[in-house]
Every structure is written in structure tokens, then in C-alpha cells.
Amino acid sequence: MITDDFRQTPYGVRFDWGLTGAAALAETSACLVIVDVLSFTTAVSVAVHRGTRVFPYRWRDETAAGFAEDKDAALAVGRRAATAAAPWSLSPAALRAAPRVGRLVLPSPNGSAIAAAARGVPVVAACLRNAGAVAGWLAGRGWGTAAAPVAVIAAGERWPDGTPRPAVEDLLGAGAVIAALGDGGPLSPEAAAARAAAAVVVDVAAAVRDCASGRELRAAGFADDVVIATEVDACAHVPVLVDGAFTAAPGAGGGCADAR
């Protein structure tokens, strides 16, 4: 049984990990902020800036094609499966270079799965690229207080056996959002720890590049994805889940590195 202790009440800014943490905190929060730096929410920030509506999906399995067809959307392929005919994938670099598509289903087992499972609460996609913009948008709505709590969820990754793996890049992204929210809240001890972890990292780009997930992507030939993921506060768009798809929040936006 999940009690209010594990929901981090009565704090205004809360932090937890993965699908289970999101489910626990969403029940008593005004907004759910998902952070999956490498690479779902970074990819969403790139696509949404370019005018694409992004539908999250739990994974690219045998049901994904039918879901995409139902949504009249293109279906993103695996990073290594991208072709000239199907150039859209979880790779932010591929999305930046590909022809713009109006609607895209973007599956992943972490950030996308959390977003697809969220019910009854506004959902925002945050990353290092838009942490400041997300925090400003939340604060502008009076969220992040004891009366209207915000739950910041680090998606994390997966071990080969499928069990959750905490990922430093998501801790840093979540900490950046929490830090940008300022001294309101109050912050739960979990949120305060995430903020403190981000504050002590002098070179965020180097930390993400050299962490386990960053090394894995670079070794696989996707170093550009890591570079894009560490464009700190380069984007002012705030992707919000509306009718099942991430789209740019009204009243947020402006300059962004993906303006093409």
C-alpha cells in the first residue's frame, strides 16, 4: 500500500523515479513533469519545436503500428533502423534533420511509457534543454506549492534484465527543473537531494557525455544525440500532453536551437 509518506505530502515540489514513482505521486499532484534526457524528452523538445505533435507509446511492439495508424501519425523506428523513407526515431539528431511531420508516435520503454500511462493529471516533458522554461511555465500557473504540488519524475533506464536503473542524466535534468523553480515548495527531501546533486556538477555536458548512458550512445555512433541533450536551456518551448500528444504549451516558446 502506498501511503502519503511515499507520496511526499505535504511538500510542494516532489521527486521520484520511474513508472512506479510517477503513479504514486501523480495521484496527489497538480502536474507531472517527466525527465528522460537520453533521450525521450529531449527528442520531444526537438520535435515539438518543429511543430510536430508527439504521441507517447510504451514500446515499439506489434501494437505500435496500429496505434500510429489510428492516430494518422508516422511511427518512429529504432535509432539504427532509420532510413530515408522512415527517418524519424528516438534520436534527437535524426528528428532535427528529418523532414517535419505533423504527427509522430514516439515509443520508448522509459519516459514515453510513463507519459502514456499517466491519467488525470497534466503531464510536461522536461529535459536539460528546456528546464528553465518548464519551471517558469509551472510557476506561472501557481504550481509547485503545497496547495498545487508538482511531481518531477526522473525516468531512468533499464538494466539488461529489464529492472529499473537510476540514470545520472535524468537526476541532473530533474535537479535542473527543481532548481529553476526557486525556493517555493517547500521541497521534499527527495526533491532537495536532486537539486543539490545538480548544483554540485560544474560541467553538466561532461557529466552526461561520460556517464554510462552517454558512453553507451557515443559508442553506438550517436554522439550528436548526447550533444543535443546537453544544450542547457537552449529551448523555450514547453511540451504538454494534450489529447494524448505532446504539443507546445500556449504562452511558452521563443528562440530554440531547432528553428528549421
Automatic annotation (TrEMBL):
Alphabetically ordered keywords of this record: Hydrolase, Magnesium
InterPro entries, sorted: ComB-like, ComB-like_sf
Top EC class, one word: hydrolase
Catalysed reaction, written as an equation: (2R)-O-phospho-3-sulfolactate + H2O = (2R)-3-sulfolactate + phosphate
Gene3D superfamilies: ComB-like (3.90.1560.10)
Presence of the UniProt keyword Disulfide bond in the record: no
EC number: 3.1.3.71
Similarity annotation: Belongs to the ComB family.
Descriptive protein name: Probable 2-phosphosulfolactate phosphatase
Originating species: Actinokineospora iranica
